[in-house]
C-alpha cells in the first residue's frame, strides 16, 4: 500500500499574520522607509572654519598688496627667454609681435622689453655681483665633499632634477633652480636635444645666471652646487615670464648661392650631398655631444657631409645647422626632408691655389 499524502491547509492565524506583514510593508505610517530613506543634508561649516578661511584670504590679499609692482631686480644681465640658444650679437630683421607686448606682463617689471630681451639698468655694478657670488660660494669643496655630494645627486632616481630641453637655459629655469636650493644643496640637471651640441655653453650660462658652481659633469648630466653660504631668504629676485614670447625673424641661414661658389657648383654639391651616405642618424631629443667632433673628423677627408635627422623635425634641424655653422665651422647648404647638407668651405690652401691660377690660361 502506498502512503497517502495529505496537504495541510494553513491555519487562519498564519494567514492573518501574513496579511498584516504585507500591509505594514506597503502601507507604512513612517514618512521615510529605511531602504529608501533620503540622503542626509550636508552639514554647514562651522563658524570657526569660516573664520579660518577669511583670515587666509585676508593674509593672501595683504601679501599681494605688499608686493611692489613693477618688480625691481638687481641682476646684472639682460633677461631673455633663452640664454644659451640665442646670440645677442645677431640682430633680428623683424618681429612677429609689437615690442610693447612684454612676456613679464604689463607694468610688472621695471625693465624695457626690446622684443628679444629686457635690458638691465646701466647703474647695476657688475663687480658687486661678482663679489656677492664669491661670498655665497665660500671656500671650495674638498674632494671628499665633492664625492659625497655627487653620489647623492647624480643618480636617475634623484628627486632634485630639472630637465633641460631644446629651449636651453631659460629664464624661468633660474627660479626652478633656486626653489630646489631651498631644501637641497645641489640640483641635478639632465640635458637633452639641440643644446647638448655645446655643453660648455650650457655650463657657462648656468653658473653665470644662477650664481652656483658645477661640481659634476658626465656627458649630459650636470650637478649644480648652490654654495656654502647660500641663504634661501636672501635669494635674488627673478621675475617670471608669464608666457613664451614669439621668436623674432632672423636673416636667412641658407643662401641660394653659397659664399665662394657659383650657382652651378652650389647645385652640384647639394645633389652630391643628398646622394652621399649619412654620417650620423640623429634621434629626437637625443644627446648630441659627439656630433661636432664627428663632423670635424669627416671634413678632414670629405668635402660634403650629410646628417640624417628623420623624425627630428625641421625646426630642430635648423637649430642644429645654426650651431654647427659656428662650432665646426662649416657652411649649411640645404635643409630638405629632414636632411642636413654641410659644406666644409674653402680652406686656405685651396684659396691660394685658386688665386694663383691665371684665368687667361
Automatic annotation (TrEMBL):
<dbReference type="InterPro" id="IPR001890">
    <property type="entry name" value="RNA-binding_CRM"/>
</dbReference>
<dbReference type="InterPro" id="IPR044599">
    <property type="entry name" value="CAF1P_plant"/>
</dbReference>
<dbReference type="InterPro" id="IPR035920">
    <property type="entry name" value="YhbY-like_sf"/>
</dbReference>
<dbReference type="Pfam" id="PF01985">
    <property type="entry name" value="CRS1_YhbY"/>
</dbReference>
<protein>
    <submittedName>
        <fullName>CRS2-associated factor 2, mitochondrial</fullName>
    </submittedName>
</protein>
<feature type="domain" description="CRM">
    <location>
        <begin position="259"/>
        <end position="355"/>
    </location>
</feature>
<keyword id="KW-0809">Transit peptide</keyword>
<keyword id="KW-0508">mRNA splicing</keyword>
<feature type="region of interest" description="Disordered">
    <location>
        <begin position="33"/>
        <end position="65"/>
    </location>
</feature>
<keyword id="KW-0677">Repeat</keyword>
<keyword id="KW-0507">mRNA processing</keyword>
<keyword id="KW-0694">RNA-binding</keyword>
<keyword id="KW-0687">Ribonucleoprotein</keyword>
<feature type="domain" description="CRM">
    <location>
        <begin position="139"/>
        <end position="237"/>
    </location>
</feature>
